[in-house]
Every structure is written in C-alpha cells, then in structure tokens.
Amino acid sequence: MEFGALGLYFYFPILVIVLIPVWAAYRLILCHERTHKSPTISSYNAINPEIDFTNKGKYDVIFSISNLKSYRSASRIIDIMKIAGALCLSLFCFYSFVVAFHHNINRGLRRQASVTNSSSVLVDFELYKPVEFDPPSQECDKVVLLMEHSFGYSYGQPFVGSFTPPDCDFDTVRINFTVTSRGRQFDRLALMYLNDTEVFRTSTAEPTTNGIVWTYIKEMSQYLTLWKSPQKVIFDLGNLIDSTYTGPFNTTLTASFTKENSVRTADLILPISARRSVNDSASAFNVPSDNATVDLTFPNNVQRAVVSISACGQSEEEFWWSSVLNQDIDDFDSTVGVLYGFSPFREIQLYIDGVLAGVIWPFPVIFTGGVAPGFWRPIVGIDAFDLREPEIDVSPFLPLLLDGKAHSFEIKVAGLNTPTSNGITLSETVNSYWVVTGKVFVYLGHSEDSIKSTGVPPSIHAPDPEFSFSRNLVSNSTANETLSYSVYAHRTLTITSGQTSWIQDLSFSNYGYLNQEGLSQRNIQNTTGISTVKGIGLSGGVEEYITTFSYPLDVNNTYALTASSTTIDASMDRGLSISSSGGLGISTYTLTSGPVYLQTRQWGDAHYYAAGGSSYSSGETTQEFSETSGGTTYSTYVQAVNGTVVTPNSQALSLPAQNSWFSAGGRPSIRSILGRGPN
C-alpha cells in the first residue's frame, strides 16, 4: 500500500484524533486513582484516628458509599474509553476504505483510458546508457549546428545542408538530436547521411494534442574519418501533412567536437548505398524492389575490414515476426484481410562477388505506433531512437579484395518459401519492403602488418540453414477458426583465411497462434547467436573477439470489431541481451568500444478504443535496463502508466491518455492499423 500525499492528509490527522481521547481517558484514570482510592481501615485510621472502628456496620456504609462513587467514576471512564475505541475503529475503517478506494482507482486507471487532457508537453525517451562526456579539452571544444528544420510534407524532400570541420584538433564527435511535435501523426523513420554514408537511423514518437519532445545523444566518433572532411549532410524524415495528419516534426541537430584521446577508429569508410547524394537525395535501398549492389575498390594496405548493415522492415514487412507461412495468407480474409507471408523468419545476407560472406538475423524493432500506441508513451520501444547495426567481419576476404579491382557487395533479405514435401527453403524475396544500407570500416596497416593480395578466396563452410516447421488450421462448417504454426531455424557459417576467421552460430524459433477467426494473434519468438572474430589486431598480434546476443519476444493482440467501434487489447514482453568481449574501434552494434554487457527487458499492456469519431489509448509499460561498458555500470527501472512515469523517485513526465490518430479516418483494414505511414 502506498501512502504518499494521502497519508499526509489523512493518516496524521486521524492519528491525532485517536490519541486525544485515549490521553483524556488516561488522565481521568490517574485522577480517579488519586482521589477515589478504595478506603481501608488502616488508611482511615491514619487520617481519622478519633473514629471508633468498633461500630463496624456504620463504616461499612461509609465504605460502600465511597466505593459506589468510585465505581460510578470508573463506569464513566469506561464509557469514555468505549466511545474513544469506537471512534478509533470508525476512523480506522474510514481511512482503510479511503486508501483501498484510492488504490483501486489507481489500479483502474492502469486498465482504462483517461479522457482528461493535460496541458503538459509529453517528454518521450529511450532507456540507454547516457553518453559520457569528459571535461572540455584545451585542444578542441566546439559545437556545430548541423540542422534546424521542420519536416512537414517531406516525402522525397530530405533536409540538405553542408558541414565544415571545426578548426581544431578533435578525435571525439557526438550529436544531439532534439525533436518537438504537436497534433496527430504516425511514427516516421529517419536516416542521416554524410554524403552517401548512413550514420544514424532513428524513428519518431507519435505526437499528442498538447505536444511531445525528446532528445537523443549519440556517440559518432566511429565516423571520425568522415567528420575530418567537408560533408553534405542529408537527413531524410519522410512525413505527411494534411487535414488528418497535422503534426510536423521540428528538429534541431548539433554536433560537439572534443579531444579526448579516444580509441582508434576506421581510416576509411566505404558506403554500400544507392549513392544519390549528388542529387540531394537519400541513399537507402528499398529491398526487394531495389538491387542493393555496389562495386568497391580497396587500397592495398588494409589490415582489417568490418561491414555494418542497417536494415529494418517497413509497410508489409514492419511486423515480419508476425507473418505466416505462404499457404495461410488467405485463411482469415473475410475478417482481417490478407495476411503477410514468407513466414516469421528473416535473414539479411551479405554477398561479396556473389559468395555468402555473413548473415544477420534481425532484432524485432517495434516503433511507437506498433502493436498498440499506448505502450510507447513516454517510454519508446527498445532501440526505437537508435537502431543498431550488426557487424560482419570480412577480413578473411581481404587477400581477394586487395588486388586493385572492383568487387561487388550485395545485401539481400530472405524469408521462407511455401513448404513442400521436401521441407522448407529460403526465399529469394520478401514482402515490401526493407530499408537497407551498409558500409565497410577499413583499417589500414603498415606495409609489414597489411594483408597481402593473393587473389585467393577464403575457405567457406556455409551449409544451408536447418529448418523445421508445423502448422494446423482448424475450421468449422462456415469459416476457419484457428491457425497455429511454428518455425525453427539453425545456421552455422565459418569463413577462414590464414590467421583471420569469421564464425557464426545462430538459432531461431517462432510460435504463432491465431484464433477468433484471425482477430486474435500471439507470437512467441526468440533469436540467439554467437559470432567469433579472429584476426591480426592493430598492434600486430592475433586477437579474438566474441559477441553473443538474445532477442526474446512475446506479443499478444486481440481486435474487437462492431459496426460502430474498434477495440485493441495487447500485451508484450520483449528483451535485448548483448555480451561482447570487444572489437575494433567503436562498434555500430554495441554502440561503444571495448567489452560490454547489456541486458534490457520491456513488458506491458495496452488498450485502444475508437468509436463515434474519436479514440483513446491507454497503456502500462515497464522497462529494466542495465549496461556495463567503459568501466562503469548504468542500471535503471522505469514504469509508465497512461503517459506518466510512476516509478518511485522518478520525475513524472506528463500526461494521461490522449486522442489518437484513428479518430480521423484511421487506416483501411485491421492488419494495416498496425502499419506505418501512408503506404
């Protein structure tokens, strides 16, 4: 039971009221004992020695009268104490009722939408370990404004600016991205480029009527080689403004430059992108419609090379983890429309000269409009403000790549084909679409440390993944009722060349269940993996780095449809765990340098209701976060209910449930309610 302000206003006054009659009764008892003690012969003899005690009957009457007076006083005292006790009991019962009522009201507010608007601006945030800043150095301490721009109707119209390095010696760069918005709007994806190289992928929170604000600070020193020369800054945040979607995103982006004797970073960064900066356009590929292939040429003194890949699903692929097997996409067409296929399994593949060089099994990012909007106010989803980029060490390919010729780098996204009697296999395509870019971090060495060009490809052991699946469709005489399915996958990959190697071991499972003719769906998924890198370190010796990860996910959502209303009830429990012994430079995956141990879990319930031209969202989300890196540990625990942080000793960040985007027309089908943007 939590007292808080309630205890201040009720508990202490009640305590005082109870103590007053008890104290009064105690004083009366003391007074009675002093003035009405039961007389004895010895006491009377001491006070009245002249009295003749031989006439005992007379004094028996005196004693009886005295005792009677004493008994009457005691009776009055007992009556007072009875009244005081009754008062205490009544006040205690009243207090208990008030506390219980207050507690039940709070619990009820966790389960229902509030229709009370607040004038406060909602402060959204992502839980992450704050970027540590050293004291300003004498060599350099500069802040540069990179962008101040409002993204209104901005599809195909990115912000384009220019950057000139500050005139000082710096080795550390961090950006501050601050956004405000007010009105009604979907969550939007945003990508930042320096020329053709993506350096930051984020997404927006969904605004409220009274407005939202958030700030994200990101380490950007891993791109130091780019910051050392003039760059075209392209920030692509596609937004839509019309009579329904009224919220622009007002952004400010600054970069701070300092000298902190940071770790060594890549000497050269080669983009795997569409390279459209010359036309002031964004350079991401949309897969599968685009062929995400580039030709790259390497210098001849390379010691290590690491590819990072930035990829996330949009539109039909945003909730890829809830997709079904191809033969089941029409199972519930009459109730929820066509389901998305190619199974809930996805694999992002990197090919070098047509040879598989590594794979990524993606983290299931959920943006702030995903599943149910009530989850994500003010705590946004894991990584929603900074999407991690998994890495593939391609150093075993360097003897082949250092011949001075162009070599192709291609990124593909695969799902699973329709099962046959021979089993199930990887597909060559998926639904529309994935936003994909990559880059190669190149570390140069001295001539004696550099890998020599031999033209010999590495030794590759990459058997096809092992898959198993099951499905069961239950029907009645008129319709399909339930669908259950499961997919399991396991893959190993080993690529070696001389003293360098890249090894992966990945596992995946997804159990899906749809009932109520498709109106209710649950997916329980987990992806785990371990990657091992061995190669020549920057100091010249052989080094080995190991990274493990786990992505558990459990999402359950149920739709209720009537002629005049729509209801969504959802729950989720998800997490992210990363353990790494380190690596070269600053990792785009762990977001830090050196060893790291990160573990976070997010869970909650959300409700959405729309009827009569208006809608309401509510939700309760809790997140635990802990990261040990850079010699320090940061741990926190936050709970939010209906847009307000309720964790003890945490600042309340405003506001109760707000009108949502659905009230002004919404989206055309149940499945697309959970989609993003106008697609």
From TrEMBL:
Claim: Transmembrane is one of the keywords in the record: yes
Transmembrane portions of the chain: 6-29, 80-101
A Pfam cross-reference name: PNGaseA
This protein's UniProt keywords: Membrane, Transmembrane, Transmembrane helix
The name this protein goes by in its record: Peptide N-acetyl-beta-D-glucosaminyl asparaginase amidase A N-terminal domain-containing protein
Record InterPro entries: PNGase_A, PNGaseA_N
Lineage start: Eukaryota, Fungi, Dikarya, Ascomycota, Pezizomycotina
Organism field: Talaromyces stipitatus (strain ATCC 10500 / CBS 375.48 / QM 6759 / NRRL 1006) (Penicillium stipitatum)
Domain Peptide N-acetyl-beta-D-glucosaminyl asparaginase amidase A N-terminal span(s) in chain numbering: 130-453
